[in-house]
Task: structure prediction
Amino acid sequence: MTAKKKRSKIDWLNHFVGFISVLAGVLIAFGLNNWNESRKERRIIQSVLVNIQDEVKRNNERLDAAYGENKKIHDTLGGYLQLLDDTREPNAPLDTLRKFQSANSAFISADLESVSFSFELFQLSNVAWRTAERTNILSAMDYDLVHDLAFIYDFQTKLDRFDEKITDEISRIASYSDSKQDWRRMLKDVNTALTFSEVLKQQYNEALETMEDHME
Result:
């Protein structure tokens, strides 16, 4: 007698079900991991936006204060220089000089010989923005928002440079310069800084609105 070998029947249905179960488990785990990573990323982005938003608000308040004080100085110096000739000698009637001095006594001495003022430095912060740059989270944020913020902080840096420039000019004038031309140069720089301030103020307000939209 010859023995017949029995072929074992492969249960393809069970294999398929098992494969699908494993695959589904892997996909679910992968999806959960991506969901957790995405949620973690969103939390970081929200935290970064809050920090930048707070910094922009503080800079905006600082800008308002500096602009107000420096505008007074700019207008006073402009009026003062109009009353003097190129050697800084009065070229206006005494009555006019007295009225101007009385209206601006906080800056100009009673004898009209000296001018005293304190230029308000801008000193705008960029810590939150620089921190965000170092974490590389900006690449995960809205492109247009990041582009706008980068432009604002770059513009802010340009305004901050006027702090040093105008301070140096004030120091030079106070030390040895009696030239009306030097005073005019400083006045021109103050005027440019004020113009930059107005532009930056508008950019701050627009950025605050945009960030608020991204945080809702």
Observations:
- The chain has five helices and no strands.
- Residues 48-214 form one domain.
- The CA atoms of residues 101 and 108 lie 6 Å apart.
